[in-house]
Amino acid sequence: MWRLFGYGADGTKTAASSSQSDKAPPARSLPSSWYTSTALFELERRAIFSKRWTLLTHSLRFQKAGDYLSFNLANYPIFLVRDRDGRINGFHNICRHRAYPVIEAASGTASILSCKYHNWSYGFKGNLAKAPRFDTVEGFDKSQHGLLPVHVHVDKGGFIWVNLQAGEPDADWKHDFGTLDENENLQSFDYAAEFKYTHTWGMDVEANWKAVVDNYNECYHCPTSHPLIAGVTDIAKYRVEPNAACLEHTIINKVQEQKGQFRRSIIFTFPYVSVTVTDNFFYIQRMVPISATLTKIENETYRHNNATDEAFDAIIQFYKQVLDEDKTLCDEAQKNLNNGIYITGELHPDKEKGPLFIQDTVRRGVMEHRRREEELGAEIWPAVPKPMGEMDTSRLSEEEAFCSKLEAELFAEDTSVALAPKAVALAAVATHERYKTLL
Ligand code: FES
Ligand SMILES: [Fe+2]
User: Fold this and answer.
1) Is residue 206 part of a domain?
2) Which of 136, 168, 200 represents a domain boundary (last residue)?
3) CB 76 within 8 A of CB 165
4) What segment(s) does the record annotate as region Disordered (predicted)?
């Protein structure tokens, strides 16, 4: 209960709450502005998506050297590739020459990673192997132009995680996820031996990513919105409990062994990916933030070797229907978050423990990051590597400083008029959009 608003992370009351009564303040949602603001979304990209370990896929997708997968994570394009030693390496999907994406397809097998712009080619460990006609350029040093790596962690179950933070991540995987890969619900299968990847399907949801993961992590809405789930599940016993950076869903079927029913384990991993495991299949659901009001859902689906066609099709249809229903809920609620009337609502401290955990984790993450930025007087972008080697010149510093000064002046001009706080926020968003257009 200490996670409720008005309480600090250590469970102590804040000044605002202690000045009122001893009664615990009600659990309230984050305000709607947090679900619509482009400035806040960009802060989340810096404070959360750039530096949290994020579950992505499974090593079953990497059967041989050269197998690759590409992803767009909150507008950070990356890819994973298996090298000849069997390791899975991750890189920003950005050619070191003139920034074209090295990998264009969502998946495939390569013998070498060739950029289609000027044909620079990289090995599976990210080393620059070939730069056409640069052999005539005196002093050109290939070792200075390797792909920019991202951190990769493969857990005991074969699930693959990435962390985009340049240099050492603030937290190692174990710090955030502890013994998740020993969780008995997740470890009841030998994934590599028992499952095969089949397909990925998805949809765009016109809603903020938090609205989508909030929705995913409570079953308070199941009786009204999901007849299929309500049909098989003892909803009163459905629980969502925080455990480290995860939310564990405990699901009890009405009748465990009745025909048409099935065991389900769901673990959501902050910030936006979950794994659902059943006897017949498992799937990794990525709810990828694209903008303040758009989220892309990608469901990577794996079939159990013993699943019959009938059982596999039935479970796919089950989840397709549930997801269609959730899409409608999120799309329609977001329209009202956008229209400016709704401010905040009271959440059920038990039935909506999942959304409360997510919102509190986001709130603390972005506020702490912003505090550090204000102290520094500049934005902190953890995924951006520091200029290094031959790149790190005084000319680069001068050019960067020139451009940031120009931006700061433009921003100051746009916000110098005395405006109400909300209008200032809107002006800041508009200015931010303008920067993007200018750049
Ligand atoms: S941008 Fe990749 S080779 Fe030029
Ligand atoms: Fe739902």
Assistant:
1) yes
2) 168
3) no
4) 10-30
Domain of 299, CATH number, reads 3.90.380.10
Is 360:3 a contact under the CB 8 Å cutoff?
Answer: yes
Tens-digit pLDDT profile for residues 246-301: 999 988 888 765 544 456 789 999 999 999 998 889 999 999 999 999 999 999 99
Ligand 1 neighbourhood includes 117 CB (under 6 angstroms): yes
Domain residue limits at 115: 54-168
Domain assignment present for residue 160? The answer is yes
432 CA distance to ligand 2 middle (Å): 34
Chain centre distance of CA 110: 26
Q: How many helices, marked H, and strands, marked E, lie in the chain? A: 11, 17
Structural domain includes residue 1: no
The domain tally of the chain equals 3
- Ligand 1 proximity of 422 Cβ (cutoff 6 Å): no
Nearest to residue 437, comparing CAs of 401, 398, 410, 399?
Answer: 410
Instruction: Give domain status of residue 7, yes or no.
Output: no
What six digits make up the tokens of 19? 């000045």
- Please give all residues whose CB falls under 5 A of ion ligand 2, grouped by chain where several chains appear: 326
Q: What are the CA-CA distances from residue 344 to residues 8, 132, 359 (Å)?
A: 20, 58, 12
Q: How far is CA 157 from CA 151, 196, 245, 424, in A?
A: 18, 14, 17, 48
With a threshold of 0.70, does the pTM exceed it? yes
Looking at the fold, whether 228 and 256 belong to one and the same domain comes out as yes
pLDDT, tens digit (0-9, with 9 covering 90-100), for 38-76? 999 999 999 999 999 999 999 999 999 999 999 999 999
Residue nearest atom 4 in ligand 1 by C-alpha distance? 118
